[in-house]
Amino acid sequence: MTDGIAVPRDQPASPVPSDSALVIRVRGLVTRFGSQTVHDHLDLDVHRGEVLGVVGGSGSGKSVLLRTIIGLNHAAAGTIEVLGQDTATLSAAQTTALQTRWGVLFQDGALFSAMTVSENVEVPLREHSGLPASLIEEIARVKIGMVGLPGSAATKLPSELSGGMRKRAGLARALAMDPEILFLDEPTAGLDPIGAAGFDQLIQDLQSSLGLTVFMVTHDLDSLAAICDRIAVLTDKRVTVGTLEELRRLDHPWIRAYFHGVRAQERTWAGGSGAGGLAADDLAAAAQPA
Ligand SMILES: Nc1ncnc2c1ncn2[C@@H]1O[C@H](COP(=O)(O)OP(=O)(O)O)[C@@H](O)[C@H]1O
Ligand SMILES: [Mg+2]
Predict the structure, then answer these.
(1) Nearest residue CA, atom 7 of ligand 1?
(2) Predicted TM-score of the model (pTM)
(3) Other CB atoms closer than 10 Å to residue 23's CB: what's the count?
(4) I need a surface site. Which of 22, 90, 236, 253 has the fewest CB within 10 A?
């Protein structure tokens, strides 16, 4: 295990899968912008079928990590294997083929504003599937239903939807090509607590029914507790990975502040009442880098 830096080895850890069960394998990753180093020899494993939550202070490099894994950001050093393939060694055609095996929901939903929901969902299918238009429209209809949107949403523009419905539409587009991996960047940010809980439930349902592996950047402690099998904490330019229970035992200033802070205390998993403070942007206070 080279995952993270500080999960105590004497604790019963989550089952360690064989390498073939690794969907994402990052080793020695270094990312930089000019003189700023964002990740410094970061290692991370993501197991098949797990929901991995990725947390860390604002600006700690969560989104850059996601973007680097999916090839939108250049790594200065290190290796990134996704679904058994070293992403740096692939031809353009192989990269495109690999890209169809994951779906991404970016922070802002990133829907095309001049297209209807259905047209948005059809984009990856038109680009990659080679299927006839009538079948593509039918698949889009299925995906829109799958994320819990009413059929009437299909012909609406993103601006005509609520924030939560836009997130669901973005999710339908991310699922268009039946991906094996779903990358989510702050999917519940900006949603009210009920909307956020509903979205978490949807992710969990989709994960179990479709067997997805989910890589989810989040600030939402409730999401972490409700649906994440393991959590990767980005601090000091690397990640520490463990279950919620494992991480709560670690003696690191940021990790302690995050998992034992006032916001965490209110959670039932931390022995709190579960009352109050359930807003998705809840962690803003604790989410500052140590
Ligand atoms: N395209 C970019 N150019 C220069 N700096 C960037 C770029 N993208 C991100 N950064 C910097 O990298 C750091 C990590 O950013 P990011 O991954 O977006 O943080 P977060 O953990 O909040 O998602 C920040 O300091 C940010 O300013
Ligand atoms: Mg971010």
Answers:
(1) 33
(2) 0.87
(3) 24
(4) 253
